[in-house]
Predict the 3D structure of the following.
Amino acid sequence: MHLPALSEVSVAVIGAGFIAEYHVNGLRSAGGAHIAALVGRRSGPTAERAGELAIPRSETDYRKVLDDRSIDAVVIATPDDTHERIAIDALDAGKAVLLQKPMALDVMQCRNLIDAAENAPSRLTVSFMHRYFAEVEWLRAQLAANTLGSIHSIRIRNATAGANWNEWFYTPGNVSGGVVMQLGVHGIDLCQHLFGPITEVSAQMMTARPQRELADGRVVRSELEDNVLATYRFRNGIQGSHEMSYTEVQGCDRFRLEVYGELGTAWLRTERGTAAIYAPSLTRQQQWVAPALSEQPLGQAHHRHWLSIVRGVSPADDTAYAGLASIDVAETIYRAARSGKRSVVETAQEQVQ
């Protein structure tokens, strides 16, 4: 698919749930996109949701938007077990795809998606929203400039009270895991985006809340893990700890990240603010310093980047393979927790063969 560099991209959003609003608002904020249709499972609620989001068309069959030649691209924000089929159908139909995380149910499905994308005329992008936060871009620049010196260890925390808007989050088959797959993959990708491949994992996990009350009053039972502690060894020798919780009353503001290096420390999204650095050799101050960060609407940078890929202005990014790698690390967490032993991440080994 080739579009003029400045042309408006016509987008359909497949999936009318909670995350659809993030993508709709992000696309509108980015500019250069027309949101042509919203696809959901039930006609009435989907039409109502489309009205709330000011989307002119609603459908219950995603194939109708794939058959529509006026639509250039799709956002897929449906339950995890549908990702592989819908994304492959969309790629075969020539649509550019922005696929919500987790990429798929397992590593094999991720590989099938990558194979389909390699043989399609359009591009596959996996949605890792945290990469585009201003503080993450700032930290990545500090790491590239070696501001903190050699990084010794990192700590990341992903925690919420848990999804309460749909039972499929807690239904094996619809999902292949609990907090690791639903929330932890954000942190896994962020770690690998900033610090490189995770090569070894050890983990402990538990199900602290086997009964869940949803927002509509329904009660569901779940045996999926909701609290996990994983420790990582990165290829470059960095050690990391990753805390994941789906039962925390307060939760994190998206994530909490602490980075400890030989020349300084950097914290993101903590009690010290969005970003803070303690590095006297850089700042010439014996205190924490908050860098000046650009302010932008949530999702703007993310969707602006995706639209530039759709138009062919920017090359395809690494998120399809990163989506596979994040699922492989997640599966390694499960394997390590079951065995009680440190386990090797297979995709990290592939990259050096």
